[in-house]
Amino acid sequence: MSSADRPPRVFSGIQPTADSFHLGNYLGALQSWVALQQDHDTFYCVVDQHAITMAHDPALLRRRTLVASAQLFAAGLDPARTTLFVQSHVPEHAQLAWVLSCLTGFGEASRMTQFKDKSARGGADRSSVGLFTYPILQAADILLYQADQVPVGEDQRQHLELTRTLAQRFNHRFGETFVPPQPYILRGTAKIVDLADPTAKMSKSAESPAGVLDLLDEPSVNVKKIRSAVTDTGREVRVDPDKPGVSNLVTILAALTGAGTQAVEEEFVGRGYGDLKARVAEVFVETFTPFRERTLELLADPEYLSGLLADGAARAAAVAEGTLALAYDRVGFAPRRG
What we know:
mainly alpha, two-stranded parallel ribbon, 5 strands, about 50% helix, globular
């Protein structure tokens, strides 16, 4: 199918670096992934090769890859509508990354802010070459599938610009081969902060788990975290930059119910923070208990889950193999017989 005969193609990936997705992952990315499969040609990837750029435990990585995959299906990704696969199951990712690395300047790669941030924390001398070059592998991930659009947050814009630059550079030197992807701006994505520290983004790297709502935790664990969420002085339930704790709870409730923040504020006129927390906890449990149960069902049937991922990898490979063959031909590699 040519690009003119299909809906716009989207590619995105997520790392399997935690035992559970958290609420920020769900509202910031997964909801949009599910919505995009309705009217886009979607390719989603569990990027396990990116996950080994830092020190890791092999058994844990293997388990987390399956856990991440199960959660993506449980969130609503439909294997009949979307292509979901594991990155290492499609070797063309690493093969194209080598070609692109030979077109990337050392200074160009060294300016990637995420590498500078992560190497600053651990020390540049102890950082791997893989961490240095992983934006190039990320570019290969996207370009293999001739993606028209890539959902991006602010922290990934620089990497997408590198992807576009490498696509255009390759096309200029060797002929039209790759689609330079455009950013897909996620409209209205809720920005969720840590319940215990409302000045920080909800993140798996948080100093304390007390403010992070992990979707696979027992419901009672998350209810306790919500009821213990840091709020602010006063009683009025409204979004206010000077009251980040209450604003965060209003934002969460609005996002999970599909109501606007104004509707939530109106619902709680004359009521206090305790009522707000109780309602957030109730909606959270209603929303994610089925998600948790479906994830555990999939993990309890590893043959079925592996079959879904094998089907996704086969569909992904059918596209990736063609793209890589074209790139290899354009760059001048001799064809292999058989």
